[in-house]
Write a structure and sequence with these properties.
Alpha-D-Glucose-1,6-Bisphosphate, Chain A, domain 4, single chain, Slowmo/Ups
């Protein structure tokens, strides 16, 4: 079993970062994410919590030996559950792999929340993951876990770059809206 953790502080307000998280795909920084399908979405009328279930199709370059032995394709699927709590200002996302889950399970949790030191201008990001190849013969499980952990780490880095790209796009849209509204009033 392997564990991954990462934290980051985005110099953007929580609302903008949360919006960017849902608009993250597709983008050129994360070409491995091929498609995102919203399966279910509902708002709790009492709490205002938005719950979303998405299916994410990812193209991964799995080791050739593994693909030959298991007979899979280069596309894999991830199921993601998210909750946006507008009162507590938290976005929590849980995801797990569906493809080859009998051989390798990857459980990921991401939380976005305002930075307590600067709630209006900064958002904290916390990511954790557990990778386990328990279903594989023990002599191969360590190799598979290490290979997948490295790939997870690399994907996390490009995912951060992808989110930052979307954040800047949203900021540009906001500036354009303010500029457009100001021009209309003049």
């Amino acid at each position: 079993m392997r564990f991954f953790e990462a934290t980051h502080k985005y110099p953007f307000d929580w609302e903008t970062v949360s919006l960017a998280s849902f608009r993250k795909y597709p983008n050129d920084k994360t070409p491995h994410v091929q498609h995102v399908e919203v399966l279910n979405q509902e708002i709790d009328p009492e709490t205002g919590v938005l719950k979303t279930e998405r299916l994410i199709m990812v193209k991964q370059n799995a080791p050739r030996l593994m693909m030959k032995l298991l007979g899979g394709s280069d596309s894999s699927y991830v199921l993601e559950y998210s909750e946006v709590d507008p009162r507590d200002k938290t976005l929590t996302m849980h995801s797990t792999n569906l493809t080859f889950s009998n051989l390798l399970t990857v459980g990921e949790k991401i939380v976005y929340k305002p930075d307590p030191e600067d709630t209006k201008n900064s958002t904290l990001f916390a990511q954790s993951a557990k990778l386990s190849a328990d279903g594989v013969l023990s002599r191969f499980s360590s190799y598979i876990e290490e290979t997948c952990l490295k790939r997870f780490h690399d994907n996390a880095l490009v995912g951060k770059l992808g989110l930052e790209q979307v954040l800047h796009k949203i900021l540009a849209e906001k500036r354009q809206e303010r500029g457009g509204a100001g021009n209309m009033a003049a």
